[in-house]
Write a structure and sequence with these properties.
Elements: H1 3-13, H2 20-30, H3 33-40, H4 44-60, E1 63-66, H5 74-77, E2 85-90, E3 99-103, H6 110-125, E4 129-132, H7 138-147, E5 155-158, H8 172-181, E6 183-186, H9 196-208, E7 212-215, H10 223-233, E8 237-240, H11 251-259, E9 263-264, H12 275-290, H13 298-305, H14 309-321, E10 325-328, E11 331-334
Parallel strand pairs: 3-4, 3-7, 4-5, 5-6, 7-8, 8-9
Antiparallel strand pairs: 1-2, 2-6, 10-11
Helix pairs in contact: 1-3, 2-3, 6-7, 7-8, 9-10, 12-14
Amino acid sequence: MAFDDLRGRLLILRSPNIGPSHYFKLIEQYGNVEEAIRFLKPNDSVKKAVDNELELADKLGIHYISDDMSEYPSLLRTLKNHPPVLSVRGNIKTLLKETVSMVGTRHATAAGMNFIADLAQAFSEHGYAVVSGLAMGTDSAAHRGALRVFGDTQTIAVVAGGVDYIWPLENENLYWEIVDRGVVISEMPVGFVPVASNFVMRNRLIAWLSQKLILGEADLKSGSMKTAKFANESNREIWAIPSHPADSRSLGPNSLIKSGTAKLCVGGSDFFKNEKTSEKIMSENYLLEVLGIIPVSESVLSEIVKKSVSEIKRDLVILELQGLIRKVDGGYVRN
């Protein structure tokens, strides 16, 4: 995109009270960017802010893509009032891959994060870029799971502030790894510090960027549930990972499964068929046959099923997430 064209688009978008909807109306009404600017007459403060933004972006190696460029995500382009311009830090080619979005609570359990990371790894191994929001908990697990797989187009982090604004600070190392081996994107100005409403806008982009959204642990009133709402409204395919009903973090995914809004997700076998997933399903079923109302420890289970404790731990976590078993004093019992 030519510099003058980019600057013109930003002059419109950075003007007060101009969002995607108003932007597209102006372009439709006046025919092109140049005529829309003539009508708007951006003041000196807007022009200075845009010039400062472009200077900072150039200094930091940040690029912009508009919705008429081939690099612009095709799924995003089809939706009304999509962001006309995105800022991008990292490998733009990541945006050309097939994508899957994964979201969930910042306060995820270790089991929940392990499950999401394994699922993200499976998608990454099959050529997908995993989309999430760079938050702590579920988002971090999704990004890290995708980054387990070799490559430089593994994951897309959608942020609420400028692409140069690292938040949370605990994820600074993860941020730089994503810049190196994936891409960070935003519709907000470079240098922008987000407020609460910007995270809702970010959630909408996460939902829109993929045909599939997978929801992990999430409270009913969480931002992740808003993401699922955006996904449902835009006819995206929603999958939810079940959790134990006694945990409030189960209420989001379990409610979507119960209502039929989301499909039940039990692992990579829902999406990819291979010998490993078949063996995994067999081992899980075998554990269910062994367990009953009397608690059985991992070591005893190991002896019964003739597998090491480390081999059965993952299957136990999956069955627990599905609500089929639960951990009690003395071991595991079947629900």
